[in-house]
Predict the structure.
Amino acid sequence: MKPIWIVDDDQSIRFVLEKALEREEFAVRSFANPRDVLEALEDDTPQLLVSDIRMPGGSGIELLNKVKARLPDLPVIIMTAYSDLDSAVSAFQGGAFDYLSKPFDVPKAVDLIRRAVEGSLRESSREVAGAEIPEMLGQAPAMQDVFRAIGRLSQSIVTVLVTGESGSGKELVANALHKHSPRAGGPFVAINTAAIPKDLLESELFGHERGAFTGAQTARRGRFEQADGGTLFLDEIGDMPFDLQTRLLRVLSDGRFYRVGGHEPIRNNVRVVAATHQDLEARVKAGSFREDLFHRLNVIRLRLPPLRERREDIAGLTRFFLRKSARELGVEGKRISDAALARLQQFEFPGNVRQLENICHWLTVMAPAQLVDVEDLPPELQGRSAGGAEAGAAPTSPVSAPTQATTSASPPLPGSAAASPAWLDGLEEEAREMLRGGTPQVWETLTNRFEAKLIETALDVTRGRRIEAASRLGIGRNTITRKIQELGIDEK
């Protein structure tokens, strides 16, 4: 059997996969960059290619396209630690067998490779240019399922029903389905059927002729006509009035409708994506939603998980929204401490991703320092009301006290048992001098110095081995990598 080729600039990833596959008696050959793979293809071909998506010297998507041009039947699995929608869609549309997000479970990765080798279904090739800003982000398995579904639906114009709580991003999914579909060149038109009064909704959807009702002084195209050749997104479809449901069903059935007050049928070519936060099956049983319309809409159903079911995505989304807010406001981007992130990850987020984005806007404007800490978070995350606790009263929640939320990378509190009096005296003296002199951002300055010194010392002790240094410090490897970049630590 031909070998499996692994392409990744991370030696540890190559090593782990090599050993796991060799235990399963697969032949393996590894490469550190796409250039070496293309050179090797001049003399040899693999049984399967497993490639990282972002590497020095070229991306996995570019490699996928070049390999598929030479070997269209070769199964390819794309790996990435950057779990955004465009990566998933580009992988599927480039002909990838599947998409593996890092960090991955090794037995599951081996099982996926085995299925690919056995010749499971591969997607047809269609390249989509990536965007600088990803439409959607998500490391959680439920979000990866959504990305995969969008990728698999990218060649189809089938009707889709998106379900999920308010604020979970249903319109983003609808927009992505449009953008990555054969109708991408057409218009994307959205309408919230719950936000428009019943008397106006019919005209909004289907348009009206001049004189159709009082105030209709000119003819007007409705959303169906505006979306012709593209996609119409009907948000909160569960709130649509019953009589309008009948008209919608007729349009979906035969592709024709009449404007309000009109007598000539208008033929329409629109893909419908509907969304709701309601249980449509329950509304059908209650008689408030047409069963035949439900089945017409429910061809493919995508469930978007609430944020509380994908807490592992909160850190990445928070940093993304902080960068986005800073860019929109034209200010320097805020950074967020591990303790503040931990507090965010404990929050239930009844408003889902929309609420998290609003919090990040608030922090960009209101947080006093560039490093956002627990005490800088808005009141709803402090366990108190917007007006704060009553004067002299105890906090309403034990999490109200910011000193209770600490991170392994933060300095010990003065007077702690583990503290060294000598260096604490020096810290106190320097802090007093800076505070008396009016030095700005004293907390951030001293904390950064402390963290930098800890990391430099750990790297010196471990002779530059980041993972070992992170382990000894009691922090994650992603944290130490981020801190090295943020603090500008020079690794010798």
Notes: The chain has 19 helices and 16 strands.
